[in-house]
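A further point concerns the way the authors explain their paired sequence and structure data. Each protein is reduced to its one-letter sequence and a matching series of backbone shape codes. An entry of this sort, consisting of the sequence and the corresponding backbone structure tokens, reads as follows:
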Amino acid sequence: MSVQELLTSATATARAALADVEDVVGDHLRAEVDADGLVSHYFASTQPGYQGWTWVVSLSAVAADAPVTVNDVVLLPGSDAIVAPAWTPYRDRIRPGDLGPGDVLPPDEDDLRLVPAWSAEDTDDDDRPVAREIASEREWVLSREGRDMAADRWHAGAQGPDTPIAQQASGSCRTCGFMVGLAGELGGRFGLCANGMANDDGRVVTLDHGCGAHSGVRLGRSVTPQPLPPPVFDTVTNDDVEVL
């Protein structure tokens, strides 16, 4: 008998290694040769909540006439086992709106959305708004990538041109009297809604966004209250008056 044959046939030894959990150990499933002198025995798990998991006992021996040694006992998930999702770092789990009072979310040290204020004008074109940002004593300012990312996010969001309310609007924010313009590069595409009755009040909107609260909206003839006819004093018909 070879060492592998000895270890493969040592099912009883492998099950004995699971004596502490024998109440949740099912049938012997298979034995796999992992390496020369190393074989793993697989047993079904009957523990509630661990469907598809298997108990694995690793056995080893140095020779065919040597004693069998238990190396390891583990509980491993199978292909149809219910397992926890892959770990997601805390920073990657944060979503807009998750921050509460007292919470802090510092940017990454290599955040491409930010550049030092002193280097913000190292571009091929004249970026005069950045000069004003430097004068305001801000250590960091938005990089060109940061502005592009914000613009793409706002354009695709609820204040963009592709939302149902914008598609049904009779006018765009570009022509609305409640729209407050933005300075800098973003001003050519976005504004700020200042209509307290609009859904987007206080939010950045694309110039081609729109809603029913446009400053140019007027009531149509069909929804205008109809004037009542003047009152008529009836001098012909007698009124019936109940005398108490």
About this structure: Residues 3-77 form one domain. Helices lie at 3-8, 11-16, 90-93, 128-135, 144-156, 164-167. The first strand starts at residue 25 and ends at 35. The chain has a mean pLDDT of 87.
